[in-house]
Write a structure and sequence with these properties.
By secondary structure, this protein is mainly alpha-helical. It contains 4 helices and no strands.
C-alpha cells in the first residue's frame, strides 16, 4: 500500500462515518444522538460540517503522528507502519504529504 492509498483510506473512512451518522439514526450511538436532537435541515448541515472538520483534524493528526510530524498522546516519534504483506507504508514525511493532499488540498479544490 502506498502512502497515498493509506491516507485516502483514512479520508474514505471519514466520509463513511459522516454518511452513517446522518443517514442511519439507529446504526451508531452518534447517529442516534443526532436524531434525538431534532435539528432543522440548516442545523443538520452545520453539525455535519463541524463533525467533518473534527474528523479531518483527528485523522490528519493521527496520520502526522504516525509519520513523526506530530505527537500522539504527548509522544512524538516516527512509527513504522506496514501493510499486511509486510511492506512499509512510506518513509519519513511520505504519509504527512499524502495526508495533506487528502485532508487539505483536495478539500480546497472541491
Amino acid at each position: 500500500m502506498t502512502p497515498q492509498a493509506f491516507a485516502k483510506a483514512f479520508h474514505d473512512e471519514k466520509l463513511s462515518l459522516l454518511s452513517t451518522y446522518f443517514t442511519s439514526s439507529d446504526e451508531t450511538a452518534v447517529a442516534a444522538e443526532i436524531a434525538k436532537m431534532g435539528l432543522s435541515q440548516e442545523q443538520m448541515e452545520t453539525l455535519k460540517n463541524v463533525l467533518g472538520l473534527v474528523l479531518d483534524d483527528t485523522f490528519y493528526t493521527i496520520l502526522l503522528g504516525l509519520d513523526g510530524s506530530a505527537s500522539i498522546g504527548g509522544v512524538q516519534q516516527l512509527y513504522s507502519v506496514f501493510d499486511e504483506s509486510g511492506t512499509r507504508i512510506g518513509g519519513e514525511g511520505d504519509i504527512e504529504a499524502a495526508a495533506y493532499e487528502q485532508f487539505h488540498k483536495a478539500d480546497r479544490e472541491n
